[in-house]
Design brief:
With about 260 residues, the protein is mostly helical. The protein is built from 13 helices and no strands. The chain is flat, with a radius of gyration of 24 Å. It starts with 10 loop residues before the first helix and ends in a 9-residue tail after the last helix. It has helices spanning about 10-20, 25-30, 40-70, 75-80, 85-100, 100-115, 120-125, 135-145, 150-180, 185-205, 210-220, 220-225, 240-245. It is about 70% helix and about 0% strand.
Amino acid sequence: MLLFAPCMLSPVVVAFIWQFIYMPDGMLNHLLGTDITWLGNRKTALFCVVIAHVWMWIGYSSTIYMSNLQSISTDILEAAAIDGRGRAESFKSITLPMLAPSTTINVTLAFTQSLKVFDIVYAMTKGGPLNSTETVGTYVVANMNRGLHGYASAQTVLLTIDDVLFRASVNRSAEKKARGGDLLMKTRKKQLLFLFELLMAAACILMFYPVIMMVLVSLKDEALLAGEPLSLRTSFAFENYVTAAKGNEILESVA
């Protein structure tokens, strides 16, 4: 329960807690006997933000692993012990392979969360110092604040596509592994799954309007964007995508 407690805190609260720890007169410098500006140094800022983010979500990943471990039958481990296998060998050949589902879930969540992380970084460093902790989320917000709405929308669309493709590849890999088991599903299960997919599709359609607007804004040129930013009309300008795909250096902030 204590390990899971940080997950129940707001990311902004977690950011303030670690900001207090990393202060020049904070707890960390007091314990180490140093006077380092941890969040103000380009060499240490990203490392400090990563520690705060991992501390917040490690309980979530641990809970998934613990749930998977509890589902492993002790009879299998006892049979391995009777066969003369040691603990290390049993863990390598039995426990670790049976943790594959939880590992897949944690890797998928870690990858998608790393792409979407924004609040804790923005609250701790706002992407600084000198863009050393810049993420996709903080970069998109910075471009929006500079008035580069089309460019920021194109980045968001590319991020969404990247996220969808990664999840699809993970699901496809999991399905291939599952085909080695029972390939036949009951008709009742198929019908329920089909109805569930229809309901999810209807819910997605109802919530899809903001995504449509995001795509349309990313395809507008600057002239149309300035005149009709919220209209469904678009000029199909792909310059924003070309710029976002090239991976240019982060634009300097306008003072």
